[in-house]
Amino acid sequence: MLPLIDLKKQYQRIESRIKEEVIRVLDSGQYVMGPKVQALEERLAQYVGAKHCISCASGTDALFMSLIAKGVGKGDLIITTPFTFFATAEVIALTGAVPVFVDVEKDTFNISIESLKLAIRAIKENDSSIYPLPDKALRENAKLKGIIAVDLFGLPAEYDAINEIAELEGLFVIEDAAQSFGASYRDKKAGSLAEIACTSFFPAKPLGAYGDGGAIFCDDDELAETLRSVRVHGQGSNKYENVRLGVTGRLDAIQAAVLAVKLDIFDDEFENRQRVANYYSNGLKESGFIVPVIPGGCKSAWAQYTIIASNNDVRKQSVDRLNKAKIGNSVYYPIALHDQKAFSYLGYKSLDFPVSIFLSERVFSVPMHPYLEVAEMEQVIEVLQEGN
């Protein structure tokens, strides 16, 4: 079996160090927050190029805490994309705000700048004929407050344009960098591309823990303090003073210890992800599949290597061949968010976001991790080419 992501090979490389650091945490008796977490936060902030890193319990918590810290709630509209993991829009709804979906680009899978402009204009003019909007009753008297841009599959979105639009409209921007830690956009690291950036340390991510974890990055001192308060039940000057509503969003010290070891080898793994992606792209360029596009000035973290089939039948046949050959694969994301039952109350129609629907019917991902060998990649390419 060739797994989609092989964490066992990575563990074999760092096993002794992981065990050593975990035992140190166990011996210390400090299992939640503490010096291990603080040291990791300092390293992560330096790596990304942000002034502050606020670690937390998951990537979802990172997004949710950020919205809370920005005062998002009922009566607010937040723009994001429908072609992403459910959590991106889920946290918007959990605050009481309304998600406003904007379609993506077919080549990068990231938010379409032209669609973003149209959606903002439609909101300002309260006219869904300009661009599809949530149900009229949901947006009445509601105010557009911010944008969550997603770095899908590890590739940063077009932040120069997004931030410029946001500044003109008085909006905040959150970078959903759950899949893009280590990536770069015009010489800046993912995690430093917007006012707030959120990442995930779920085990399958480019930098993954051995359980859940996440982090928030920002440069604003006051915002960082608010986020630290939100992380622990809205804590004030001491643990029994609560100055706002918050969550239990702390990172465990054991996960911080694991992440610190993995961060030591991260740059090497990142370069190996580039090697794997380049090999796939060269081997599949004549295969009939559309391979990922990386715009100039960008580097992807290659959380996934995702290709586009010519239609849904070709995808199904390809997945069937991969399964038969015992090659790991996955379809991200077969149901676009505006078609999810949980968001039916928004009133969107399936065809409102044609590119997201196009991609949901055609994309699939093949094994991607730093330890893939040439023979394994050749096997993947050969199986994919069989039907074309």
Descriptive overview:
The chain is of the alpha/beta class. It folds into 2 domains: 7-102 and 110-260, Aspartate Aminotransferase, domain 2, CATH 3.40.640; 266-385, Aspartate Aminotransferase, domain 1. It is 41% helix and 13% strand. The strands form 3 sheets. The protein has a 7-stranded mixed beta sheet, sandwiched between helices. Strands 7-6-10 form a 3-stranded antiparallel beta sheet, with no helix packed on it. A two-stranded antiparallel ribbon has the order 11-12. The longest helix has 32 residues, at 253-284.
Chart the SSEs and their pairings:
Blueprint: H1 7-28, H2 35-48, E1 52-56, H3 59-69, E2 76-80, H4 87-94, E3 98-101, H5 113-125, H6 136-139, E4 143-150, H7 159-169, E5 172-176, E6 184-185, E7 188-189, E8 196-200, E9 214-218, H8 221-231, H9 253-284, E10 298-299, E11 305-308, H10 312-324, H11 354-360, E12 363-366, H12 374-385
Parallel strand pairs: 2-3, 2-4, 4-5, 5-8
Antiparallel strand pairs: 1-9, 6-7, 6-10, 8-9, 11-12
| Topology order in helix (H) and strand (E) letters | HHEHEHEHHEHEEEEEHHEEHHEH
- Largest sheet: spatial strand order: 1-9-8-5-4-2-3
Our Rg estimate from Cα atoms comes to 21 Å
What fraction of the residues are assigned to beta strands by DSSP? Answer: 5-15%
